[in-house]
Amino acid sequence: MKIGRRSFLSFVIGGAAGTAISPLPWKLTDDSSIWSQNWPWTPVPPDGEYSQSNSVCTLCPGGCGITVRKVDDRVVKIEGMKGHPVNDGGLCLMGLSGLQLLYGPTRVKSPLKRVGKRGERKWEKISWDKAILEVTKKLADIRSNGESYAVGSIVDSESGTVSNLFKRFLTAYGSPNFMTMPSIQDSYGMTLQLMQGVSAQAGFDAENADFILSFGSGIIDGWGSPVRMFKANSVWKANGKKVVQIEPRLSNTAAKSDKWVPIKPGTEAALALGLANVIITNSLDSKKISQSTGFESFKELVQNEYGPDKVSKITGINITTIVSLAKNFAQASKPLAICGKGQGSIPGSLNEFMAVHALNALVGNINQDGGVWAVAESDYINWPEFGMDSFAENGMQKERIDGAGSKYPHAKSLLNRLPEVINSGDGSLEAIFVADANPLYSMPDSKAMKMAFDSIPFVVSFSSYMDETASNADLILPNHVYLERFEDVPTLAGLSKPIVGLTMPVVKPQFNTKHVGDVIMLIAKALGGKMADAFPWESYEACLKETLGVKWDVLVEKGFEFNGDKCLLEGDFNFYPEAMKSLSDFSPVSVEGSAISYPLILIPYDSIRLANGYIGDPPFVIKAVEDTVLKGKNSCVEINPKTGKELGLTEGRYIFLHTPRGKAKVKVHLYEGIMPGIIALPRGLGHTAYDKYLAGKGCNFNELIGPAEDPVSGLDAAWGIRARLTKV
Amino acid sequence: MSTQDDKAKEVSADGVAGPIILFFILGLAASLVFGWVIFPKLLYSQKKQQIDFNHVLHVEAVEEGCESCHFFREDGSFSGIPKLAQCVECHEDVQGDDPNEVKFVEEYVANGREVPWLVYARQPDCVFFSHAAHVKKAEMDCGTCHGHIGESEHSRVYEENRITGYSRDIWGKNISGLREHTWERMKMDDCAECHATKKIKTDVETLPWPINWLPRPYEKQTGNRARVKTVKEACFVCHK
């Protein structure tokens, strides 16, 4: 028998026939299809018991209710809480991505002590006992030198128990330097104080308004409580209400509005007064308010100084538009004017706020349906008085380092002034505590802020994340993230019915972290004496329960509670407070830099896809940023095609952007939605810390801009800076 | 007319035909042996459960049969294999001297560690399956799909498909894919077959179907086996 080629072929054919009638090919086909549906990188929630817990999102001041879906002990999804008065089931991209802030790589996992140079990011893990001992020793030393006033703290806002614990701690320790991150709430608070004589926040009954005049407020770009504003915007659209957006750039808000009115940046106050002029001249003002204090002086001011022709010259808006805008606004049944640019993270010029508020008063919508309400801040924190020792008493006699309350009597906190005071040698701090804030990134002129921090010998960060401030600290005492802790969340953010929410620990702390409230109490107790007596509570949770009293059970059950009934404050309206007199000769808040060496004007813009506060974009969110905003590793600068042509710039080219404060390499994006001569950069990019998904992407606008002190409030009023572009 | 050449060809053809057939049969036999015997052995790895579980013993000890441990949660979802917390209710301390019991209490209960049970009936993650619809609504018996597991005294060997990572119970013990009892296989066709048969036995209207506006995806075929009728959107009733 000869075995040849034919035998071999025959063997193969036999094999093929046999294989075809064996299960092998059919089973393999089936298995490979299942295999291809189960790639190891496809995220699949683990099997287990499903449960849902309610809590509050604290990633921005919006105060949205959230429902957290869990499988056993793992959080798998965050959704908006149905029936919540702020967001009723809706949630923003950032809120949805909160999971990545809980489990992501950017968490600080245990107390860390710096071992390398500052900012070198070399850390040693230490125990909580050692960390607290370290802080206590330092604070005891400073105190015994009689320099207790040289300790400061920076927190996100002045409301809530954690902020109040910081304040109480500093007071008992002997320092007046309790500072908060600035926002438009500071300006609105001051406006209401000056014009209505009430200590309140502005609440907007936006949903019921029928003509919305927005002076650059990013209604759908993250202004106020973002989800609530999105929903209000949808209500307006559905019911045919009018939205007019006044700003130099075609933002998303402007694009979705009924009318976009481009304006020379910084001249919004003049426009508001010009509109007031038309309203008064045409007797369209609410007759109720003409008896108000200062109305005659105000009338005189706008009639003498803010005629439509003059305003047209100042603002660059033509006279007909000004007149028709004023008439439409005044003739609407529930008109509402709002201000605070973009997301409202820069307080802005007080004149502008007062002018816009006067406009609201003029059409009689103060404390009315669809209008602006003066709402009282939360009043549930009533802690017992505490005794102060001689160190505390001496320290509290000192003036604040930022000049709030002294140089600027109306201001409560002026963090924007801190760099200048420290860097010019007018004042110094020995230690600073930072919680729920990232000033080294999010304060304008962040380089100067860093320089100021460099000269403070002891920097303690309570951040849950490795942000810019934490990276440059001496000690990090990481707080639980919002999904791991109890905390009250009083929400104002422009709500007409402010509420208090309660974040609840939906999961156990994932790492060796501690609640910042507990840490403060432990430090106070370790310092002993009257400091320890000022904190009689066993733990932060005990303190919170006692503080909230009867509210506690409701909050645990529902997650939120309206902040009492007496939220509406009445006060005599004063159209012409002292501070407004400076408007008799209008000059916009000046921008830094000379027009000769810097021919262009750079302004920032905000997007709902870019978080520019304490917390940076988590990976999901940064993925959603369009490539006309961030392309590769570079921010895109928006330039009008006309300006681009004059400068010989083409789309997508790399250029250097110079301002008196800094320089950045950016990409050209020619965009007709920006006024000629003005260029715009997004805020929220250019992080150097956080994780690899965020760090190194784009440039930080805050490194390019300097602060501009408002002459009345002392708050930062800078809306832009002069700039020039040079070839790479 | 035949020439010498032709004869030579015939001879050679005669001589080759035998080996050709033989080799065909050899190839056929080898591939059949490989496909039916060796391939299944290669395809599945054999794994032992960490704890040998005795169902008989437990069913005797509990009051409500299967549902004592495999229960429905308040939200209607099915608990599946019990978590440690449930076991601890009875097994806080070692009971008796069974080495499995000792191992369970010392290694798992004492350390608060979950037992990594290998789940025989776990379906691919791309499939939805509601136990409630089948057990509560259609009043099906657990055994219809899971067989006589409640009568087992030992945990059997878990055979894991090396390609998909799923249990052999899904495809069925029989590599041909044929089965005698309903619990011997858990592929989509088996779901479809039951749904189609039910449709005939009961009435069309009473067949369980979760979405009113959506056409039912199953229909009785003229052939022996039920087949999925692919109407628009129908796939996503069961598939994620």
Please give a structural write-up:
The complex is a heterodimer of chains A (about 725) and B (about 240). Chain A is of the alpha/beta class and about 725 residues long. Chain A is built from 25 helices and 26 strands. In chain A, the strands form six sheets. In chain A, strands 5-4-16-15-14-6-7 form a seven-stranded mixed β-sheet, covered by helices on one side. In chain A, strands 20-25-22-24-23-26 form a six-stranded mixed barrel. In chain A, strands 11-10-9-12 form a four-stranded parallel β-sheet. In chain A, α10 (about 270-280) runs antiparallel to α12 (about 310-315). The mean pLDDT of chain A is about 90. Chain B has about 240 residues and is mostly helical. Chain B contains nine helices and four strands. In chain B, the strands form two sheets. A two-stranded antiparallel ribbon of chain B has the order 1-2. In chain B, strands 3-4 form a two-stranded antiparallel ribbon. The longest helix of chain B is centred in the first third of the chain and has 40 residues, at about 5-45. In chain B, about 10% of the residues are buried. Classes of the chains: A alpha/beta (about 725), B mainly alpha (about 240). The interface of A and B includes residues 17, 35, 47 and 48 of A.
Summarize the structure.
By secondary structure, chain A is α/β, with parallel strands linked by helices.
Task: Lay out the secondary structure.
The complex is a heterodimer of chains A (728) and B (240).
Chain A: H1 5-20, H2 24-37, E1 50-56, E2 65-71, E3 74-80, H3 93-96, H4 98-103, E4 112-114, E5 123-125, H5 128-144, E6 151-155, H6 161-173, E7 178-180, H7 184-196, E8 200-204, E9 211-217, H8 226-238, E10 242-246, H9 252-256, E11 259-261, H10 268-281, H11 295-305, H12 308-315, H13 319-331, E12 335-342, H14 350-362, E13 372-376, H15 390-397, H16 418-423, E14 431-434, H17 439-442, H18 446-454, E15 458-461, H19 468-471, E16 475-476, E17 487-491, E18 499-503, H20 516-527, H21 529-533, H22 540-548, H23 551-558, E19 560-562, E20 600-605, H24 619-623, E21 630-631, E22 634-639, H25 641-647, E23 654-659, E24 662-670, E25 678-682, E26 721-727
Parallel strand pairs in A: 6-7, 6-14, 9-10, 9-12, 10-11, 14-15, 15-16, 20-25, 22-24
Antiparallel strand pairs in A: 1-2, 2-3, 4-5, 4-16, 8-13, 17-18, 18-19, 20-26, 21-22, 22-25, 23-24, 23-26
Helix pairs in contact in A: 5-20, 6-20, 7-14, 10-12, 10-13, 10-14
Chain B: H1 4-43, E1 44-47, H2 55-61, H3 84-91, H4 99-109, H5 131-137, H6 142-146, E2 158-161, H7 168-171, H8 188-201, E3 218-219, E4 227-228, H9 235-238
Antiparallel strand pairs in B: 1-2, 3-4
